[in-house]
Specification:
The relative contact order is 0.09. The protein has 2 domains: 292 residues, Chondroitinase Ac, Chain A, domain 3; 404 residues, no CATH class. The chain starts with 11 loop residues before the first helix and ends in a 5-residue tail after the last strand. It contains 7 helices and 49 strands. Strand 34 and strand 35 form a beta hairpin. The longest helix is centred in the C-terminal third of the chain and has 25 residues. The protein is 13% helix and 42% strand. The strands form 8 sheets. Strands 8, 11, 12, 13, 14, 15, 16, 17, 18 and 19 form a 10-stranded antiparallel sheet that branches. Strands 37, 38, 41, 42, 43, 45, 46 and 49 form an 8-stranded antiparallel sheet that branches. By secondary structure, the chain is mainly β. The structure holds 2-acetamido-2-deoxy-beta-D-glucopyranose (3 copies). The site of one 2-acetamido-2-deoxy-beta-D-glucopyranose has 10 residues, from strand 40 and strand 44.
């Protein structure tokens, strides 16, 4: 699928290859299916080709993009006598969860099978399949059922030794699928041998598949099916061999093949690797290794094999769609088990945001290909990617580089604000290596932040609650709030503050009723912390979603929200902005706002809650601090609870303090002391604490508090000990 904004290298003219089609119009040779190379989806099927016996381990790695995504991994008939496997998990946004599959899911022999693994989720996920033979794990990205196609060309490394064979398996999701194999080379199915020119027809029922084994090279074998199928290719490896390379990969259907490909060299590469280029029709291919260019005309069904040399990038271009599969034959020690097989993504499928999983026990790298002018803006885990060397890809205007990933973190986000680029996730370990294209998550990018550390904590807790099949009022509230936030952020549609405030208000009302007799302080504290923070995020989001409106106000029974959009000035600014909600105000300096600027405009939100001070009341005074306890013994809350937030969330250590004017609930008596406090939530405990806030001024009706950070605030009032 073409993504906008990508400048294509105008190299054809230098080579005089005027007959090449402009690559912006990637030609599709097959119109069945959607033919998009997506990696995000809700349903995936796969299987595991295996001959190894005891030492095989199989797993799926599931990456989540939304809160509380329910995933089921099931195999309808994995024992052959109707035995069913199912595991249910829940995965949150930014998380990766591994699910181990029973060893008997491995398919032995050249047979029809029904051990198809189905991964099904209620929101978009991406899935990486791992097959771990002996010490030799191999991975493939799975393409969702919606991206499967009806025509495939097999490409696998040919036989290298007596105990390794090319193999492939074909699986169907839909029922009664007639699959025709047009054989090239020589292969085995059941007890028969088929050779070039033979065709083999098999009808598959839903979630069935079959596995074929090559006797000689079977690359170029064509598979045509009435309904879409998933095709895995690879190489068999028996456990007895230490020199055998067990590899596998899910192929892309012909309809999603592209015309332009870049292969950056592997970071650890010492020997020549291989690229296989497959044509489905008469095709002219340009293959450029460094400065050396070569054009080749391929007949339909033929597979071109070319070297990929250490440190030299490869550029491949064709007049119609081609399949490009990279085969790493193994690096440091020749003939050791280091190999992997990987689809190379075509330039038209490059995207702006990826997630990749670092694999345990490996040195993990992000290999990137980008437009020369855009490299500076690539962000890894919210930090600019620095200290990387970008190298030219001869023949194009693109550059490539590699970045080693921190070993501790398992899931990484890599993104560019506007320009598509390529991201390959590769890694090496003592006896192994892997390579997988990054999962594009462009379609689920949120324009706004939907989490804070505290919210993440609550999500983890509720995930456990949901997984046990139970629920609580709080967790359903967390779920519906996050679903609303995510919808709001993903849809990129203007939402009114009214819509934001509504659900919180109804929850607050019902909670106020039940919290009266509720002595569970921890639960109240965590619920209210979640509420305070999610209202802030939602209000900021609503403000950012309506860039044409400078200020918005909403007043409901339970809260008043005021928002302001500020476009940061170029130079220093002196202005002070005043936001009013109910009878409270917040004064914030424009320096504070622009320091939070990451985008064109910054949102500021001020919220005043009508009833919250009767829920998080004096029961939540400084716990554990005896000095403070003594002082605060007779203090009570004497104002509404207010929250202030800017841009990306809660700013700490402001250069210029923020001033809040809070209206007293009851007139302050002369001898009473007013104490400005903020709401602090740590390790499941919530307290009101005076850290970072001072009372600037107080009279009988109002107190002005000055605070060096933004969060939620209130006033405590009572007799100081000297008056008691
Ligand atoms: C979360 O809320 C959504 C939308 O209201 C609902 O469909 C889903 O089942 C809920 N999830 C859980 C785990 O309760
Ligand atoms: C807060 O009040 C102090 C004292 O009056 C003042 O110096 C400061 O500028 C005020 N800050 C803002 C942001 O208005
Ligand atoms: C108390 O101070 C506030 C804020 O400065 C002011 O608006 C209000 O009029 C004062 N009230 C009295 C009784 O002086």
């Amino acid at each position: 699928m073409g993504r906008p904004g990508f400048t294509f290298p105008p190299m054809f003219f230098f080579l005089g290859l005027f007959w090449f089609l402009p690559p912006a119009s990637v030609q599709r040779t097959n119109t069945i299916g959607t033919c998009q190379t997506e990696t995000l989806g809700r349903e995936f099927i796969t299987s595991y080709m295996d001959d190894c016996g005891n030492s095989s381990q199989f797993e799926v790695q599931i990456a989540g993009y939304f809160a509380f995504t329910s995933v089921s991994v099931s195999i309808s008939n994995y024992t052959g006598d109707g035995g069913r496997f199912e595991e249910k998990i829940m995965v949150n946004r930014g998380e990766m969860v591994r699910v181990s599959l029973p060893e008997s899911v491995g398919i032995k022999g050249v047979i029809k099978f029904s051990k198809v693994v189905l991964v099904k989720a209620d929101k978009d996920i991406s899935v990486v399949s791992v097959s771990n033979k002996d010490v030799n794990p191999e991975t493939t990205v799975l393409y969702p059922v919606s991206c499967l196609g009806n025509e495939h060309y097999i490409v696998t490394p040919p036989t290298e030794s007596l105990d390794s064979y090319p193999e492939f398996s074909v699986m169907t999701y839909e029922d009664r699928n007639l699959v025709t194999v047009h054989v090239k080379g020589k292969l085995r199915y059941g007890t028969r041998v088929y050779s070039t020119g033979d065709t083999l027809k098999i009808i598959l029922l839903a979630f069935q598949g079959y596995r074929l084994q090559g006797i000689a090279n079977v690359s170029g074998t064509r598979i045509v099916s009435e309904k879409p199928v998933a095709v895995l290719v690879g190489q068999v490896c028996f456990c007895t061999s230490t020199k055998c390379n067990h590899v596998f990969e899910q192929l892309l259907p012909v309809c999603s093949w592209g015309t332009t490909y870049i292969i950056p060299p592997l970071p650890w590469q010492k020997v020549d690797e291989i690229v296989y280029i497959t044509a489905s029709q008469s095709t002219t291919v340009l293959y450029q290794l460094g400065e050396q260019a070569e054009t080749v005309t391929l007949a339909g069904g033929s597979v071109l094999q070319r070297p990929v040399k250490p440190s030299i990038p490869v550029y491949i271009s064709a007049n119609v769609g081609i399949q490009v599969v990279f085969y790493s034959v193994g690096a440091a020690i020749p003939n050791s088990s280091h190999a992997f097989l990987m689809n190379v993504p075509d330039v038209a499928s490059y995207c702006r945001m990826y997630s990749i999983n670092a694999q345990e026990g490996f040195e993990n790298f992000a290999l990137m290909v980008a437009n020369t002018a855009e490299t500076g803006a690539i962000i890894l885990d919210n930090q600019p990617v620095r200290d990387v060397v970008w190298n030219r890809v001869p023949g194009t205007e693109l550059v490539w580089s590699m970045h080693m990933l921190a070993p501790a973190i398992r899931s990484h986000a890599v993104e560019h604000p506007s320009s598509p680029f390529a991201l390959l996730s590769v890694g090496t370990a003592a006896m192994d290596s892997y390579g997988i294209p990054g999962s594009c998550r462009e379609d689920v990018t949120f324009k706004c932040q939907t989490e804070t550390l505290e919210i993440k904590e609550q999500m983890e807790m509720c995930k456990d609650v949901f997984l046990q099949g139970s629920t609580s009022e709080f967790c359903s509230f967390v779920n519906s709030t996050l679903v609303n936030l995510e919808t709001m952020c993903a849809q990129d549609r203007a939402v009114s503050l009214q819509e934001v405030a509504g659900p919180f208000g109804s929850f607050l009302n019902s909670f106020t009723l039940s919290a009266g007799g509720n002595e569970n302080k921890r639960e109240i504290a965590s619920t209210m912390t979640f509420l305070l923070q999610s209202v802030e995020l939602a209000a900021l989001t609503a403000a950012l979603m309506s860039p044409e409106i400078t200020t918005q106000t909403v007043t409901t029974e339970s809260m008043a929200i005021k928002t302001l959009l500020v476009v940061p000035a170029a130079g220093p600014c002196d202005e002070v902005f005043r936001l009013r909600a109910q009878e409270e105000t917040m004064d914030i300096h424009c320096d504070t706002i622009t320091r939070a600027a990451t985008e064109d405009s910054v949102a500021v939100a001020f919220i005043s809650y009508s009833t919250l001070d009767s829920i998080i009341d004096k029961r939540f005074l400084n716990e554990g601090d005896l000095m403070a306890d003594e002082k605060l013994r007779n203090f009570h809350l004497n104002s509404r609870v207010v929250s202030g937030a800017v841009g990306a969330g809660r700013l700490m250590n402001l250069s210029k303090p923020v001033n809040f004017t809070l209206r007293h609930r009851q007139a302050k008596k002369e001898e009473e002391e007013a104490l400005c406090v903020h709401w602090k939530f740590i390790a499941g405990k919530g307290t009101w604490t005076p850290d970072g806030c001072t009372a600037l001024y107080t009279n009988s009706t109002h107190t002005i508090c000055s605070c060096n950070h933004l969060s939620s605030f209130a006033l405590l009032m009572g007799l100081s000990p000297e008056w008691r």
